[in-house]
Amino acid sequence: MATWELLRGIHNDKSAKLVSRCSIKDQRAITEEKIVDQQPTRVLVTPENGTYMPGDRFSTPKDMSRHNDPSNTRFQKVDDMAEPVEETLQGMTIQELRVHAESNGIELGDNTRKDDIISVIEAALVA
What we know:
Elements: E1 2-6, E2 11-12, E3 17-20, E4 31-36, E5 39-44, E6 51-52, E7 57-60, E8 75-77, H1 85-90, H2 94-103, H3 114-126
Antiparallel strand pairs: 1-7, 1-8, 2-6, 3-7, 4-5
């Protein structure tokens, strides 16, 4: 399974697994229009509904490079050693860490300090 970063556009893939979400403070409120109960409805783009936005990293067995062409690189394969997890986590706010933990099914318990939350997330990712 390879890790890919979405560089441009929005990508829908319910089989992909979120590795890291682009920083919440960098995200705009991105929505897309879908038909719900025969009515056009704006829905939030989230990995929970299989939708990824630029900056998101996800793992998939698919070769995403097949979607790239010389004038439009949408996906870049990420070297697992390129960005240590702790740097990514240290750059997040406590609220961003809570969202990250929840989206990855990590139980934080009573931890409220940033360093404690990061320790729990790192331990869960190693396990």
